[in-house]
Amino acid sequence: MAEQGQGSAFPDPPPFYKIFTAENVAAAQDVPEGATEGTVLQFLKPPEPPEEGYITVFGVDRSIEHQELPPLVEVVNPMTGRILWPDGLQLFPEGEVDRVTELRKLTKSMLLNYLEIVTIMGDNPNEWFPKLLDLKRIVHNVHYLLNGYRPHQARETLCMMMEEQIRRKKEEMEKIRDKCRETERLIAQFARNGVTEEDHDMEEKTVGASRAEEASSDAAKWSAIEGI
Fold this sequence. Notes:
Elements: H1 2-7, H2 22-30, E1 54-57, E2 60-63, H3 99-123, H4 128-147, H5 150-193, H6 197-227
Antiparallel strand pairs: 1-2
Helix pairs in contact: 3-4
Subcellular location: Nucleus
Subunit structure: Component of the Mediator complex.
GO molecular function: transcription coregulator activity
């Protein structure tokens, strides 16, 4: 049975799902903290978030503890094994910086270096490589500064997801209210017209009898035609 579950397209759920019954969930909520140890109810208590250790993200081990953005690492030329920028890769000041101001400076420098490399390619194409390294250095710094906005981006993304969920739920609630109002209007209309449930049933019986008579008449007509 286990081999069949592992090899099937939709394997069986893990066996401990049977613990999560309505009775066990209700019992786990009433049990004091720590009293579920050694019992089945201990699996119904969510574990505490880890405070230390490592997690693997895209094959790289990262510490669970909060860390600041790591410093810029030197880039080594894979062909020669030498550092591409011996005087340092970082172009902005150390410590806390105004990221918007530094990004504007780097963007202007990038544009200027691009114009210079275009000019060099027209005048002396053999001298393009040093200017290309300058462009790469600027791109590394821009990328590093933008990574500092990742926590803010994550928070904003979560806010947008929650706002979208709230919007969808409000739309569903409004649709339910519209259906309720329409139902109440129909009920009020039936009440004003004196239509009761018995009248409705009688109307359905009348319609059913009329349809049966029509079907019987059509059958008689076809029988007469076939006898000709």
